[in-house]
Structure formats: C-alpha cells, structure tokens
Amino acid sequence: MHRRDLCRQLLSQILADDQALQEKRTDLEKSRTQQIDEMKELGLQSELDIDQSASRRFYAGQLSGDMRHIDRDRLVISQQLDLCRKALAQAEQDVKALENVKEKRYREYLYEQEKQEARELEEAWMAIQATEE
C-alpha cells in the first residue's frame, strides 16, 4: 500500500509539472505572437526601425527555442507518466493480491476456529454422555 501511495504522489507531481510547463508554453506562445505582431506593425510604418525589428525577431527566435525546450521536457514528462502509470497499476495489483491473501487467510482462520469449536462441542457432548452412562 505504501508503494501505491508513493506512486500516486509521484503521478500527481508529474501531472502538476506537466500542467506548469503547458501554461508556460502558452505564455511563451502569446509573447511570441505579440512580438511577431509588433514586427508586422513596424514593417507597416513609413520609416522602418531596423534595430527594433531585429530585436523583436531575435526575441521571437528565443521564445521559439524556449518553446522547443518545453516541448522536449513535456515529451520526457509524458514518458515518465507512462512509467508511473504502469508502476501504479502494478502496485494496485500487488495491493489487491495482498488483500486476497489476507481474506483467504482470514477465511482459513475462521474455518479452523469453527472446526475447533465443533471438536470442543463434540468432546463436551461425549463427556456428558460418558457421565450419564
């Protein structure tokens, strides 16, 4: 059960990490789109400011690189999720098997108790019969 709980905690953490990366990528994508839109606006002006345009192009390129890094990290996280889910499934099976063993042993214990009680009852009956004779 402890392993199952650890797997659940790890799965939860990995999912949270993936969500955070997804949100960060969305933010980067918005920033990149904003930079591209500003470059387009600069291009429409009568006087082109090459420094501003180059600066935005460079920054948009950096954002694209950051998004690729996030995509790569999310791919790793996806693989971790698969492994974690498999480990959790195995832990669940192990817990179920232990519960089945526990239940089987409990049934065996009850059966033995009933046999012992029946034996004691029979011995008591035989003792009563012997004293009556």
Backbone shape? rod-shaped
Taken together, the total number of domains comes to: 1
Structural category is mainly alpha
Mean pLDDT: 90
Can you count the beta strands? 0
Task: Tell me the β content.
Answer: under 5%
Low-confidence stretches: none
**What is the rounded distance between the termini?**
59 Å
Sheet having the most strands:
none
Q: What's the tally of helices?
A: 2
Share in helix: over 70%
Give helix and strand order, one letter per element, not per position. Answer: HH
Radius of gyration: 35 Å
Task: Please give a structural write-up.
It is a single chain. The chain is mostly helical and 133 residues long. The protein has one domain. 95% of the residues lie in helices and 0% in strands. It has helices at residues 2-44, 50-132. α1 (2-44) packs antiparallel against α2 (50-132). The chain is rod-shaped and about 125 Å long. The protein starts with a helix and ends with a helix. The mean pLDDT is 90.
Tag the structure with descriptive keywords.
133 residues
Quick recap of the structure?
The protein is an all-alpha fold and 133 residues long.
Record the SSE blueprint.
Elements: H1 2-44, H2 50-132
